[in-house]
Amino acid sequence: MMLNNMLSLLRQELVLSVLIFLLLFIKLGKDRSQASLSVIVNIALLINLLAGLWNMGEGELFSGMFHTNATIVFEKSILNLAVLLISMQSYSWLKSHDQVIEFYLLLFTSLLGMQFMISSGNMLMFYLGLEMSTIPLAAAANFDLTNRRSSEAAMKLIISSAFASGILLMGISFIYGTTGTLLFDALPSKLTGNPLQMFAFILFISGFAFKISAVPFHLWTADVYEGAPVAVTSFLSVVSKGAVIFVFVSVLYKVFQPLSHAWYLIISVLSVATILVGNLFALRQDNLKRFLAFSSIAQVGFILIGILSGDHQGAVSVIYFILIYVFSNLAAFGVISLVSALTGKEQITDYKHFYKTNPLLAWVLTIALFSLAGVPPTAGFFGKFFLLTAGASKGNYLLIAVAALNMVISFFYYLKVVKAMFMDENETPIEKLEIPAVSKLALYICVAGIILVGLASVVYEHINSLSI
Amino acid sequence: MQSYSYILWIPLLPLATFVVLGLFGRKYLKTSSGLIGTLSLLTSCLLSFKAAKQYFFVDGKVDGIYQKIEAFKHVWLQFSPGVSIDMGITIDPIAVMMLVVITSVSLMVHVFSLGYMKGEDRFATYYAFLSLFTFSMLGLVLSVNIFQIYMFWELVGVSSFLLIGYYFYKPSAVAASKKAFIVTRFADLGFLIGILVLGFYGGSLDISTLIQKFTTVQSPEYISITTASFLGMSMLTWGLTLVFVGGAGKSAMFPLHVWLPDAMEGPTPVSALIHAATMVVAGVYLVARLFPVFSMDAHALDIVTYTGVFSALLAAVIACTQTDIKRVLAYSTMSQIGYMMFSLGVSRYGGEAGLGYMASMFHLFTHAFFKSLLFLGAGSVIHLVHSNEMKDMGGLRKLMPITHIAFLIACLAIAGVPPFAGFFSKEEILTAALHENTLVYGVALFTAALTSFYMFRLYFSIFWNKEADVHGEHHGEGTWTMKLPLIILAICSVGAGFIGFPEFVTSDGAGIETHMDIASMAVPVSLSIVAIIIAAIMYKNANEKPAKVATAFGGFYRAAYKKFYVDEVYLFITKKIIFPLIGQPIAWADKHMVDGFMLMLGNLTAKISAAIKGMQSGKVQYYALYFFGGIIALSLLLIYIWK
Question: How far apart, in Å, are the Cα atoms of A388 and each of A269, B147, B314, B569?
């Protein structure tokens, strides 16, 4: 009985762990051809995704360290889906790389860490999960072995996240010191809001702000995104960010509920700063990866606005937005990853007249950017709309007005890229690219997601029906 | 009651056309795409007429009042209990009227484009975009839910962006389409916040529910929205004003009108569709759709009135100074929409007090026909002379007789000369204004005279003035597909005024009696005629052919000729004083200050962005410093708030 229970509650983590061990054994054995390996990995990821869709109840394990329910399983499935899409998209890049197995090992270890983090019921478990998800990524950022910028990105990532982890750990220590417990369930009744707890809370929230790259804790983002290989960048910007935001929401809403007046204020300030700075920097970028880095910072600002609502609607709108964000951002990164792997070009000016030679990729990127900008009828619009509505439920219209104004500004720079692709003349546009079928499939899935998640109301209603 | 479910096909047919042409047009249907688009729209148009006949004459009226019918409603997204986003179809007098207007004007444009756009490389794409636009516009007018309106509203914006930027190899077209998109998006922001405000206080996004709640003075929703206030205005005023800002953006009201003249870079038939009959009146339609709520709030109505009347006057003055014929038409559209807006603004809800509402919708209806006729006529002219400038035209009446007569009819209609369509609707607007607000009436009267003047300046400059200097081979008025729409629209421009409009479309659904009395008619009509005569004297002759002009205009010209000195004074006043001292400064201010402000916003953002780029230095130790700075700032914030 106990074992059965464990198997069903831990099924996503188990599939992933088995996969990691399998990869290790393959690595130890003789070399397999890379192409068949990719297929095996992708199928395993698909199994993992399906394992999540299979609803198997809720419960907790290891005396409250690990807990799960339908929402958490859904959140993990979003992450699994994103990793599957990234894996499909990076097919061309991996084909030219010798160390495919290591790459997958790093990504999956990180993903496993995130899944434990999301399921954590204890500060220590949460911290372990967080570290397990961060450290492999620093190694993965260095995966462009011949590129100095890639090493630089890895160094910056590891140093800044060590710093942030230190701060976070100090926050956790203070919280433990003042309350005497680390269990999420026991904490709310012991939080009184005395100055030391407040300070601990600020340290804690700063650590989170670093991970989701909220301003002013965002500075590492652009350098790391630019230097790291595109597959790692998209992992960082979608999976890693999404996982931390999921935890952030549940920690704020449940554990720190007694301090909600404090976090409402802090998040309001962070959200405005994040949206403004993200937008202003995105305006002046020439490198597409850097451009998307800043645009994703601005997106986080919008997510923070949704978080402000502090109730069921807020959590629902955040999860819904992240699902949409997965599709939109991965569609954009998918195109950039293909172009970058096949031609090495990453500047916006390189994309001039891209439409003439690669109409399919140009349309995919356009739809993705429109969704990121929040233009109806793409899903991005619904996502943003629900975030703003959730944020507006507290009646802070000034904040909503600033956010909505920034939606228009962001529109301007997204359109800049679209304009370059469709309208600007170019003597030497990027040549016609041969797209591998599996990457093409990933792009189609993303586009379908961008269109359907918004229009098919069942997705939102499903999330709405989950108890957060 | 018969079913109205066939109305669903009216927007769905253009959508299907868009999908088919968008997917297969360029490869397989290159030549037949025009025909496919036109036939599908013809079906939509016939269905619209069927709907109009059924609604207005068979079963729309219950106890003498036209009912609002929800023909189809699908709960699309249950947001929270009570608040849902629905997709559906509303049928009421204005929706049915808009169906007829949109499908028939769009059909005319489809037919006209068969000739006008012939041989274009992206012919199929053009028809695909036209279908998409028509679909979005139809979806907008049929909406049951304010959120549904917003979605189609944005879709209208996107498809008009595609159409204006159709000549994407022309930098000016690209700039114009971007400008139109961004300015209207800016306005839509207001709309979105307005929706949030109304939805938040009303607890619903359904239009009928909102109207019902906000027009019941005792309802808790009404009490909460009127007692809550922000910066001295009640939330109801804020909500409605913000919604109106969205409408003002699409309808090119001052100061959000700057995109309209530039949008003339699109193909001319597109202007006839978007900038005459459909998209630009979306704002008017929006206010009319929510009119019962607007009528509860005098402040919001005042804002609508004064924005409308000021835009009407401003645009008319600027129109007098333009030489590009499409720009003249663009400003004239803005001016006429100003009429519709202030007419709504001076109206009240129900019965005789709702005269302004009726008049506004009436003017929307007639204006759609004569303005799209003017644009299509201008399209024919541009097709012939390959220029938009008045100086390249003149004397074209011999070369294009049908266009000439059609254009003349449209000019008479917009000038408000009886018995053409514009006369009836403008008369109702002026009567409504006279009863409510004399200042508005005075400005409207003056604007009406200006309208006649600049329209006939346009007319004489194109068709008279001098001998035609079109040399060599020319194709006259083009194919019959270009002539037929002109003829049909000309007939509508004459006949549309005789429809007993007050019977059908009123603020509360019950027909009202209107009285046309000679005394109130005499002033505007005679002013218009005087203005036309002045335009004739100034622009009809190219001065070196007085004899010809004299015989053409007969005794009247000779009388005017004898008062030559007066004429000169007038010329002096207009050319030396009014144009340079009033018209041009206004045009200048419009161009540099209003446009400049929008530009400044962009530049300012870029500057701030440059100023803070130092933050992103690339040095990790600085990043750590900022990190600490962030922690300290947050701590200080909390300390400051809770000392």
Answer: 16, 14, 37, 61
Given a contact cutoff of 8 angstroms between Cβ atoms, the answer to whether B194 and B240 are in contact is yes
What percent of chain A stands above pLDDT 90? 21
pLDDT of res. B460:
82
- Beta carbons of A280 and B158 less than 8 Å apart: no
Q: Do B105 and B369 form a contact (C-beta atoms < 8 A)? A: yes
Chain A CB within 8 Å of residue B625 CB: no
- What does the pLDDT look like over B433-446, one tens digit per residue? 888 888 888 888 88
Which H helix or E strand runs over B2? none
pLDDT, mean of residues B41-56: 88
Q: Select from A219, A294, A386 the residue whose CB has the most chain B CBs within 10 Å, as the one to mutate to test that interface.
A: A219
- What DSSP string describes A415-465? HHHHHHHHT---SSPPPPP---HHHHHHHHHHHHHHHHHHH-HHHHHHHHH
**HSE-CB of A106 using CA atoms within 13 angstroms:** 18
Q: pLDDT digit string (tens) for B81-96?
A: 667 778 888 888 888 8
Please report the pLDDT score of residue B471 as a whole number. Answer: 56
- Distance from the Cα of A451 to chain B's closest Cα (Å) equals 14
pLDDT for B541: 66
**Average pLDDT of B154-159?**
85
In angstroms, how far is the first alpha carbon of chain A from the final one? 27
Read off the pTM.
0.69
What percent of chain B clears pLDDT 90, i.e. is strictly above it? 1
* DSSP-based three-state secondary structure for B68: coil
Distant-in-sequence, close-in-space partners of B306: CB < 8 Å, separation ≥ 6: B342, B345
Comparing CB atoms, the residue among B76, B605, B630 nearest residue A409 is B605
What is the rounded CA–CA span in Å between residue A51 and residue B212? 49
Write down the residue that tokens 């699902």 correspond to: A323
Residue B561 has pLDDT above 50, yes or no: no
Chain A hits for B85, Cβ within 8 Å: 457
Q: Establish if B27 touches chain A: CB-CB under 8 angstroms.
A: no
Q: Which residue range forms the structural domain that includes residue A74?
A: 2-467
Mean pLDDT of A414-427: 80
Q: What is the pLDDT of residues A9-24, one digit of tens each?
A: 778 888 888 888 888 8
Our count of domains for chain A comes to: 1
Average pLDDT over residues B320-332: 81
d(C-alpha B107, C-alpha B105), whole Å: 5
Q: What are phi and psi of B80, to 5 degrees?
A: -150, 170
Distance CA A277, CA A215 (A): 7
Write the DSSP assignment of A227-276 as a string of letters.
HS-HHHHHIIIIIIHHHHHHHHHHIIIIITGGGHHHHHHHHHHHHHHHHH
Is the bond preceding residue A216 a cis peptide, omega within 30 degrees? Answer: yes
